[in-house]
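job 3f2a | input accepted
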Amino acid sequence: MSPKTNAPLSHSVFAKTTKRLSVFWLLLLIILPLVIAAIYTTLGVFRDHNTLALERRGAIAYLAASMAKENLEKIIDVGVSLSTRVQFQKLVESGKWNEAIKLMESVPKDFPYIQQATLFDPQGIIRAATPLTPELSAIMGKDFSYRDYYKGVSKNWEPYVAEAIKPAVPLGYNLIPVATPIKSQQGAVLGILLLNIKLDAIAAWSKKIDVGPTGFVYIVDQRGHLIAHPTLLPTEDIVDFSSVPAVQKTLKGERGVEVLFNPIENEERVTAYEPVPQYGWGVAVVEPARTAFAERNKEAGRVAILWVLIIFAVGLFTYRLLQDRAVISDQRDRERLLLESIGDGVIAIDRTWNIISWNKSATVLSGWSREEALGRPLREVVRFVRESDKKENIVFIEEVMLYGEQRSMENHTLLIRKDGAEIRIGDSAAPVFSASGKVAGAIIIFRDVSKEREAQKIREEILSETIHDLRAPATAIKSAAALYGDPEELARDPEALKEGVEVIKEANARMLDLINTLLAKARGDAGILERERVSLSSVISGIVKESGPEAARKNVKITYLPSEKPPYVLANIGRLKEIFSNLIDNAVKYNNNGGTITIAHQTESDLIKTTIRDTGIGVSAEDLSKLFTPYFRASTREKIQGTGLGLFTVKKFVEEAGGSIAVDSTTGKGATFTVSLPLAQN
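job 3f2a | predicted structure (682 res):
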């Protein structure tokens, strides 16, 4: 048997990879629903707590707006209550403003959030104030009808909460005026009672709302001016917040909760905004997202961790279970892998000759697939016949089943493929025993021996041809030796002595040539090669020098044109000499008297091309394609002795060195052989 060493390795790697992938996909199939459930549940918890957090901030904003509305209504109620006192109305109606204001002197004390009470006539001219300061005295009688509080209250002569203002006289703080019309019993407008509320009082309202340690509430008036904020100082100018998106929506009467990015603080903030009904104000509750959603993140994290633990536990248990199953599967696959890795065809049959196992090589050799063969009788699928008479040859299998001993096929056995083609095969069969020791079947092993038979045939032909070719020089030597054994004959023909010596020399050279060729081939077949960095110029120069006497005898001129830079190749020096000795000797041998041989080099990329051009008898076009086959001799060269192995050997040696050889020739015009070899690295 001849196992394919690379196939099992690659198949093993592939099988292991496939199994790992199978385990992975099966594990994924089990884990994936859990992962989906984990994601769905975690997102559900995240979403619910997110909604809860947003709704909570929205509720706080609503509470803050309701509280602001309630406090404003209280202030308005105070204003209405004060303005409807009968005595107060009479004094105002009679124009006794100073006496009327005295009735209001206790208001700032009774209502601490009211900073000041001021009286205006219906035209908006200030008439009296309490408490009265020198600065206020200086502006008595001035017209303030341009102020928002006058425009608001005079529009329908209803109580009006005005926008935040900076007082006309410097007080060191800003105010929110609340204007109430003073009417007679008959409904005629007598004047305006203005109650000024400090912004500190409104800020105190917002501080009563618990938004957590990092949250805060701010309030804007109907113009978007900031009237309550943790960082707002009473002495500051009016701060305009009308460009803030949440404020803009609030002033339009919209409510909502949004997560917005604050570029100043470089963080996301949850902002809930709510309008204050009837008064046009807006309330916003702001809290950093990290604290607003802390509970959400905490709960979602808990659920996620719980799911991770569940998935890990299930995954680990499943993986261990799959690993245990994989071990059992590996044992079966290892046996199948070994069977598939064998380069020979392997068939197993049971006691009834039905096929129970069939490897890949059996498919390649027979043409029958595993699916087609399994379960069928052996003789329906596999036909072993004798090469001589084409009769069935299964005696070796029958003997295995009968005697329980290994048997080999007969020589010259053929396998008839599914397509009818015939393959020369060889090998054996062995019994398979049951647990009780009885023969339960057989394993038949077979391989294609066509190449071996062909190689054997070539070796036999080479040996036969060589022995035949050795007879000629041996006979010549024998004849010359017989001549030297007859002194009388030598005396009659002195030239025969000289001719006999030449005959012996030529015959000896011929025999050595044949022996060297056979030896070189044998060494190559055995793989005995040593490679080294060799100067190609030195090798060819030496061969040209050795060929000089023979070339001179035929009056052939050899011209060698070495490269300026000597080329080096990585090769076996003996093989290299064989290559160029054969080619140069042939160029001399098959040249015309007075002919020429030109040897030159040409470098192309990483190759060195050596051309050997002669002016000899050449090769016909029909013979060129057969020139490198064993025992072939061109029709133009049959008159000159040779084995027909020289160029075959040359081509083999060139290809072993990683190169190639080509020939170009025309009958009567010589031949050009080009040998291309890879250059050696420096």
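job 3f2a | Residues 6-83 form the longest helix (78 residues).
job 3f2a | closed
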